[in-house]
UniProtKB/TrEMBL annotation:
<dbReference type="InterPro" id="IPR011059">
    <property type="entry name" value="Metal-dep_hydrolase_composite"/>
</dbReference>
<protein>
    <recommendedName>
        <fullName>Amidohydrolase-related domain-containing protein</fullName>
    </recommendedName>
</protein>
<dbReference type="InterPro" id="IPR051781">
    <property type="entry name" value="Metallo-dep_Hydrolase"/>
</dbReference>
<feature type="region of interest" description="Disordered">
    <location>
        <begin position="1"/>
        <end position="27"/>
    </location>
</feature>
<dbReference type="InterPro" id="IPR006680">
    <property type="entry name" value="Amidohydro-rel"/>
</dbReference>
<feature type="compositionally biased region" description="Pro residues">
    <location>
        <begin position="10"/>
        <end position="22"/>
    </location>
</feature>
<feature type="domain" description="Amidohydrolase-related">
    <location>
        <begin position="89"/>
        <end position="438"/>
    </location>
</feature>
<dbReference type="GO" id="GO:0016810">
    <property type="term" value="F:hydrolase activity, acting on carbon-nitrogen (but not peptide) bonds"/>
</dbReference>
<dbReference type="InterPro" id="IPR032466">
    <property type="entry name" value="Metal_Hydrolase"/>
</dbReference>
<dbReference type="Pfam" id="PF01979">
    <property type="entry name" value="Amidohydro_1"/>
</dbReference>
<dbReference type="InterPro" id="IPR057744">
    <property type="entry name" value="OTAase-like"/>
</dbReference>
């Protein structure tokens, strides 16, 4: 051992007690300091509601909100970072209204990690794809939403309904779902749903979900693809049970009960008993679309999950029953979304990707773009989603809205494929992602501009963000 003459430490002569940071014991140490304001100049602002673009706009972001949008190029905001977008498009952040953050990425047994820990990757990857808000319809918790809100885990704003409410033997019954989705150590499937039967049982279960801070309540009124014993055609929960759930949630100020439902009888039973959201809806017919429109019921189709299951490599991994069920819903789902649009239903963007398919999330834009005009598809993921979530700060770039936006090289109202990140690892045209007024992704030309004002606010630290 050589002696190190500089390596000397001696105790201080006295100990001075330190106050907590900021003098407050309630300070949450991981909440980052407020982001410096941003002034975007020369932005082409995408106005989805009016299917138009406002050129040469100056957009100010402060305190996590958009504070002004104007043609005044001389706006001065003290301490702001000024970024000249040179005509690039500024689009509202995207919303995926049907996700399962605790089972999107990695195979179920990946490293035997807890689903809530794995979700920290999924949330970052979704944000890197431009999704600044997501609605989880099975599995996410109130505390995960808080973690995102506090930037403990970078991710999209999270709306969650806790566990799925299912009848015994229904689509959400973990015992009747595909066993390959269960994991040895943490059984994410049983974390995803709660079983209840009878008016008394479902009332208590709905109250419990509301107590846990659910933003909505998700139920199942039809069978599903990934469960071998409940037929797609099965209709689940009695009318009285559904009414008990919807009235309980309404009494407790819940916003919405939404139902997993593929078939007409399942959709009708749900809507006729107070449900105002339909998930999937693949076998929707025209008369039922009219019912959705006249009752103001939201439809969230999920084309990407059935598309992915129908092609390599996923189709080879599916058991026979699942492949057969998937064929029944895949092509019908493409027709259903068109019928719904024609009948004036408020259609929202959803993907439902599970079992390691999360990387396909933004291909949903390409799939819908084959069936509908681009500006309609963009509305699904912005303005319509804002109505579903009952939050007018989402889906728009205007004073008072959340400072959630994307920087794009092309107009998504004309070609929504600019938002498709691409399964081959391309980044599509998403050059920049801002959530809460914090820049989290910067690529291409936008990366140079961001470098000039001090770089990213938050480095997501994953390959998808590069
Ligand atoms: Zn789902």
């Amino acid at each position: 051992m050589t002696a190190h003459p500089h390596r000397h430490w001696a105790p201080p002569p006295s100990h001075t007690p330190r106050p907590p940071p900021g003098g407050d014991v309630n300070t949450i140490p991981w909440i980052p300091p407020p982001a410096r304001p941003i002034v975007f100049k020369n932005a082409a602002v995408v106005d989805v509601a009016n299917n138009s673009v406002k050129k040469s706009q100056t957009v100010v972001l402060e305190h996590g909100l958009v504070t002004s949008v104007s043609r005044d190029a001389d706006v001065v905001v003290p301490g702001a970072r000024v970024i000249d977008l040179d005509g690039l498009y500024l689009c509202p952040g995207l919303v995926d209204c049907h996700v399962h953050i605790n089972m999107s990425d990695g195979r179920p047994s990946s490293g035997y990690t807890d689903p809530h820990l794995r979700a920290t990757y999924t949330l970052k990857a979704m944000l890197a794809r431009g999704f600044t808000t997501v609605r989880d319809v099975g599995g996410a918790t109130f505390s995960q939403a808080q973690a995102v809100k506090q930037w403990l885990t970078p991710g999209p704003r999270l709306f969650q309904g806790g566990k799925i409410l299912s009848q015994t033997g229904g689509h959400g019954d973990p015992r009747s779902r595909e066993s390959s989705v269960s994991s040895l150590c943490c059984a994410p499937e049983s974390d995803m749903s709660v079983l209840a039967d009878g008016v008394e049982g479902v009332t208590r279960a709905a109250r419990e979900l509301m107590r846990q801070g659910a933003d909505h309540v998700k139920i199942c009124t039809s069978g599903g693809v990934s469960s071998p014993t409940d037929a797609l055609e099965s209709v689940q929960f009695s009318p009285a049970e559904i009414r008990a759930i919807t009235s309980t949630v309404a009494d407790m100020q819940g916003t919405l009960v939404t139902s997993h439902a593929y078939t007409v009888p399942a959709i009708r039973r749900a809507v006729e008993n107070g449900v105002r959201g339909i998930e999937h809806g693949n076998l929707l017919d025209r008369d039922t679309a009219k019912l959705l429109a006249s009752t103001g019921t939201f439809l969230t189709p999920t084309l990407m999950i059935s598309t992915a299951k129908g092609r390599a490599p996923w189709n080879d991994t599916l058991p026979e029953y699942m492949r057969e069920k998937n064929v029944k819903v895949r092509d019908a789902g493409r027709r259903a979304i068109q019928i719904a649009e024609e009948e004036g239903v408020t259609v929202c963007f959803g993907t439902d990707l599970t079992m390691g398919m999360g990387y396909l999330q933004s291909e949903e834009f390409t799939q819908r773009g084959q069936l509908l005009p681009s500006h309609r598809v963009l509305a699904h993921a912005t303005t319509n989603a804002a109505k579903l979530l009952n939050d007018d700060k989402i889906g728009v770039i205007a004073a008072g809205a959340y400072a959630d936006c994307l920087v794009l090289p092309a107009n998504p109202l004309e070609d929504v494929r600019v938002l498709d990140v691409g399964a081959d690892g391309r980044h599509g045209g998403i050059w920049g992602v801002v959530r809460d007024g914090r820049i989290v992704v910067a690529r291409d030309e936008f990366a140079e501009a961001v470098e000039g004002v001090g770089g990213l606010d938050v480095d997501l630290g994953i390959e998808e963000a590069k």
